[in-house]
Amino acid sequence: MRIPFIAGNxxxxxxxxxxxxxxxxxxxxxxxxxxxxxxxCPPFTALGDVGRAIAGSNLELGAQDMHWEPQGAYTGEISxxxxxxxxxxxxxxxxxxxxxxxxxxDDEVARKVQAAFAQELxxxxxxxxxxxxxxxxxxxxxxxxxxxxxxxxxxxxxxPRLVVAYEPVWAIGTxxxxxxxxxxxxxxxxxxxxxQAVGGPSADETRVxxxxxxxxxxxxxxxxxxxxDGALVGGASLNSEAxxxxxxxxxxxx
Length: 254
Description:
The chain has helices spanning 16-29, 47-54, 80-85, 96-101, 106-118, 131-135, 139-151, 180-198, 219-223, 240-250, and strands spanning 5-9, 37-41, 59-63, 88-93, 122-127, 163-166, 207-211, 230-233. It is α/β, with parallel strands linked by helices. The chain has one domain (5-250): TIM Barrel, CATH 3.20.20.70. α5 (106-118) packs parallel to α7 and α7 packs parallel to α8 (180-198). The longest helix has 19 residues, at 180-198. The radius of gyration is 17 Å and the shape is globular.
């Protein structure tokens, strides 16, 4: 059975003080939730303080990116061992904003995925198509390429520990979201491609999330789909009450 998974990507928002306040408020509201993995991904500057604020709770800490090398002359970058030392369990990799604004390639994302596992972190791999690609009927080609490239060097032992987030680029921060049915269809294909690329039944254990303008109002449409195991939440995760409502919905609450 795949445990529901809800992650909040705070992107470049919140000072350290604001991040700790939000995490502390959220920790209280979702303290009784036992059947959902809940991950907060604040900015790098707030990782240590948020980690201390949620220590001993049912919240886990994640980072928004990492370099594939454990150390080196890479000014401005951060490595897996650094994140692990701060208490991170998860790391978001291949987010569309990284691919678009910073021109990350499939090969670079794949190197980061491999490095994350090697450095004791669990990747949240993001894949998704742009509006132009969607309108051109290339959704499946684009996502299959991204998925297969990212997991090409993984084995059947690592695959169940991978989390994949399907995030149609045209739905991120736009207020538009895919329908539950379409997101479910693509999620099923992602799991199929994972199985083909790595082999064995381990892809059935890999959790696939939906991301793209997820809110308390529409989470039920996605979490109720058989192939969708949770959500990678952007804007709504910045508000502790809104994010808690999403978590509680994933737990089967009101």
